[in-house]
Amino acid sequence: MTTTTRTAPAHLYAHVQDFYARHMHLVDEGRVEEWGETFTPDATISNNANPRPAHGRDAIVAVIRRTHAELAARGIQHRHWMGMLAVEPLDDHTVRATSYALLLATTPGATPQIDRSTRCEDELVLVNGDWQIRTRRVHHDGLA
Amino acid sequence: MTTTTRTAPAHLYAHVQDFYARHMHLVDEGRVEEWGETFTPDATISNNANPRPAHGRDAIVAVIRRTHAELAARGIQHRHWMGMLAVEPLDDHTVRATSYALLLATTPGATPQIDRSTRCEDELVLVNGDWQIRTRRVHHDGLA
Amino acid sequence: MTTTTRTAPAHLYAHVQDFYARHMHLVDEGRVEEWGETFTPDATISNNANPRPAHGRDAIVAVIRRTHAELAARGIQHRHWMGMLAVEPLDDHTVRATSYALLLATTPGATPQIDRSTRCEDELVLVNGDWQIRTRRVHHDGLA
């Protein structure tokens, strides 16, 4: 992880926080097409659990559509929490956003469980006045 | 849930975050009268667990006063965490704030437990320079 | 705890959030020397679990260096989450920051556990354009 040394201006920081909230609300509601639009068409996602990164919005959306269908069938509600956000401007239209993310899962009648703890490093680009994720690198904690 | 499409200006976003922090600190310390003042006198709270919504600041405060007395008797510390906040301005004095909220409970000598995961949609109004909650709609995850 | 009554300007609020993110990233990566520089040289940390507060950056760093070595030996990943931040300006270079903090621990092959829930009150000073912690008072929930 590259720790941010330059600080983002306040308006940029708030805008990125608001973007992530809307991004996570969409995936947790299963609105996968709209969620897909929070990535650039050529976006990539990689993580330390899967040797094959996902390339392109269509591939990314397909994975999440399957996941959401499985959760819906079992009545499980996911909530993605992102926090400890550091934002570093790279140029006028690009920032690096480093954060922690938790996946919280609630099964009917049970208490919420923390499924996963991660560190997330995104490169975001400004497109038509809102952010899109161009690259996402996720580190899952606790891989054996 | 209505997902936010318009983004709040940065000064407004930070102000709403700070408001929620103070709002949650008050309830978790049992300062229920001051907490009540973070609602409008005619505020309503509704959720998917209880068919009867609470109407008015007095009714809202009465419920929480009982809850806090029970917790204090058992030595349980509640911490309300709110996150993934999206803020949408409705007019010059009103915003819709959509967020996730966790209730974390710690019993003496035990590790903290997540009691409840929720999605929260508030309508906030600006009164004398600070926010008040006019309507709160809470969705509790995992109701059987 | 002193609950904040005055609200911080937006630029200050965002800057403090970004500071805490970088502060927590450093400690969770074990970059203890750089983390130490987020405290003033004469900083103090106190909490309700230990009658002896730590005085000075060197003492603070020494404690965390030992903790991190133990975690690394056991393969445990800590993630410090801070939230519900209220920021109150005290003067042009000083703020009081009141927040909640969670310690999340992940052991290889296991799900993440919340080790500790706390309330944290820091006094931050602006030094060369970034914040440093001058005093930290932590309240650990659930002490028997």
Quickly list its features.
homotrimer, 144 residues, alpha+beta, Nuclear Transport Factor 2, Chain: A, 6-stranded mixed beta sheet, 3 helices, 6 strands, globular, disordered N terminus
Please identify the structural class of chain A as seen in this structure: alpha+beta
How are helices and strands ordered from N to C of chain A? HHEEHEEEE
Most extensive interface: pair and counts? A-C, 30 and 35 residues
- The fraction of residues in strands of chain A falls at over 45%
| Count of distinct structural domains of chain A | 1
| Oligomer class | homotrimer
Instruction: Give the % helix of chain A.
Output: 25-40%
Regions with little confidence, pLDDT below 50 for 5+ residues of chain A: 1-5
The CATH class designation of chain A is Alpha Beta
The side-by-side strand order for the widest beta sheet of chain A comes to 2-1-6-5-4-3
Number of helical elements of chain A: 3
Radius of gyration of chain A: 15 Å
Characterise the protein shown here.
The structure is a homotrimer of 144-residue chains. With 144 residues, chain A is of the alpha+beta class. Chain A has one domain (10-140): Roll (Nuclear Transport Factor 2, Chain: A), CATH 3.10.450.50. Helix content of chain A is 29%, strand content 45%. The first copy, chain A, has helices at residues 10-28, 32-36, 57-74; strands spanning 39-47, 54-55, 77-91, 94-106, 113-127, 130-140. In chain A, strands 2-1-6-5-4-3 form a six-stranded mixed sheet, covered by helices on one side. The longest helix of chain A is centred in the first third of the chain and has 19 residues, at 10-28. The radius of gyration of chain A is 15 Å and the shape is globular. The interface between A and B is medium-sized, with 35 and 29 residues.
